[in-house]
Design a protein that fits this description.
Helix content is about 60%, strand content about 5%. It is built from 4 helices and 2 strands, in the order E-E-H-H-H-H.
Length: about 150
C-alpha cells in the first residue's frame, strides 16, 4: 500500500467468539443477555416437562369413577397430547443447546445453511433461530414436499 492509504482490516468475526454480533439488519445484539434468556427458557422447559406427565394422571381420576371405554379413550388422548408436548419441549431444549454451542463457537448470528447474517430482529424474537428467514422457508417448503 502507498503511504497515506489504509489497507482494510480482515474480519475474523467467525473465528473469534465475541460478546456482540452485528447482523445485517442492523443493531448489535447483547450475547450475554441472549444467553441468559436462552438459559432461562431451557430451565423453564426442563422444569415443566415432568409436570406434563403428572397432569395426565391427575386428570385421569377426574374423568369418571368407572372403567368405561370413554375413560380409556380420554386417557389415551391425554397421554398422546402429553407425549407430543414432551417431544416439543425436548426439541426446544435441543435447539437452545445448539444456539448456546454456536455462541461458544463464535458462529451465533449466522445462518447454519447459507452462512449469511441472521437479522437482529429475528434473533431477538427467536434467540435459538439457526437460520435466516429465507433458509427457514426453504426448509419448510422442502419438508412439505416429502
Amino acid at each position: 500500500a502507498r503511504p497515506g492509504t489504509e489497507v482494510p482490516a480482515v474480519s475474523t468475526e467467525r473465528e473469534q467468539p465475541t460478546t456482540t454480533v452485528a447482523p445485517a439488519a442492523g443493531g448489535d445484539l447483547d450475547l450475554d443477555a441472549l444467553r441468559s434468556d436462552l438459559l432461562a427458557q431451557r430451565a423453564e422447559l426442563l422444569d415443566i416437562a415432568p409436570d406434563l406427565d403428572a397432569e395426565v394422571f391427575r386428570t385421569r381420576s377426574d374423568v369418571s369413577d368407572g372403567s368405561g371405554e370413554t375413560e380409556h379413550l380420554v386417557v389415551a388422548e391425554q397421554k398422546d397430547v402429553s407425549a407430543r408436548l414432551d417431544a416439543l419441549a425436548e426439541r426446544s431444549v435441543e435447539e437452545i443447546d445448539e444456539a448456546l454451542a454456536r455462541m461458544d463457537a463464535g458462529t451465533y448470528g449466522r445462518c447454519v445453511d447459507c452462512d449469511e447474517p441472521i437479522p437482529a430482529e429475528r434473533l431477538e424474537a427467536v434467540p435459538a433461530a439457526p437460520t435466516c428467514l429465507r433458509c427457514k422457508a426453504d426448509r419448510e417448503h422442502g419438508s412439505a414436499l416429502v
